[in-house]
Please model this.
Amino acid sequence: MITRQRVLFVVLVLMLGVGVFSVAAQDKPLRVTYVVNGTLGDKSFIDSAQRGLDQSVEEFGIDVRTIETGFDPANWESGLADMMADTDNYDVLIAGSFSMLNYMASRVHLYPDKVFFFYDASMPYDDPSICVDGCTNVYSITYAQNEGSFLAGVYAAAMSLQTDIEGINESPIIGALGGQDIPVINDFIVGYEQGACLVNPESQVLVQYAGSWSDPARGKEIALAMYDQGADIVFQVAGGTGEGVFEAATEQGAFALGVDSDQASIIADTDPDQAARILTSMMKNVDKSLYRAIELYLAGELPIGTADALGIADGGVGLAYNDIYTEVTPQPVQDLVAAVEAAVLSGDISIITAFGDAAVPVGQGCAAMPETEFDAASFLSS
Model:
């Protein structure tokens, strides 16, 4: 028999919604399991997520267990499945990257009393063939990497015109190395291409994919080939593979752009010569986004069952304005980047993407880019 008290309890649960999870979690330290499809130590994407969790441990007193499944994709699905099934040891389970999306989405309905965070892609909430019950217990975080990479393209193309800087040649050629030919990486690259074209319609962007996230030797090989073809700056979007780009830049006396973390600052003490070759990094602030998610969860304010898209305006992406950037970058280029960022925030510049119905393929060239009234040349000619 359904009692009045049970009816009231059900109504209360429905009214509390996402807060139900957080109230239960606050009875004791929140237990978080972080499943990595890779290993710590990439000085980029994976380490950034761990930094956000470490900060949450320090400030919120939560317990975090990090599980590294290695770089063999054959281990990722089973590793995640095992950790999700280990329900006695977590309240919140976190995973990320496009490659892990369906592995989590297809299983969360088996654990309705658990909460899951997924970063770098959105759950297919409306696809019942994957999200059986709508993935209502998953909070997703996406990043407007096309926005951050647009700034990186503006910067790279502007710096490629600064031929008085040793290591910058006369050719308007820059490069981009992707870990894999997948939508999220292509979203970086199309933004980068558009940014370069905004500055210089003669820009050429060399693009190649390594097919790996953990092969620095392969990254170095590709970057050396790009430098040989006339590129003076190569943007690495390849995780640990991208460390080879920095090695190549150092050997060639050329330059590179990092990704996800402020990669120059990370190695400035241990390898200052290599750090000096990383002019800036396109920051995908996974650390800040996970810290924010945990803070909102503990406060009962996290919109579980939905996705948040974090762009420049939200601090989700941007460039690393560190000491190297300030010292090496001429003031007109710094002014240009600041003005472009303001124009993006005001809506005066729209940035193309590799996602959705309006998806733009990589390699379209400057003639295919959307027109804008923004006058980049005026900054560089002053």
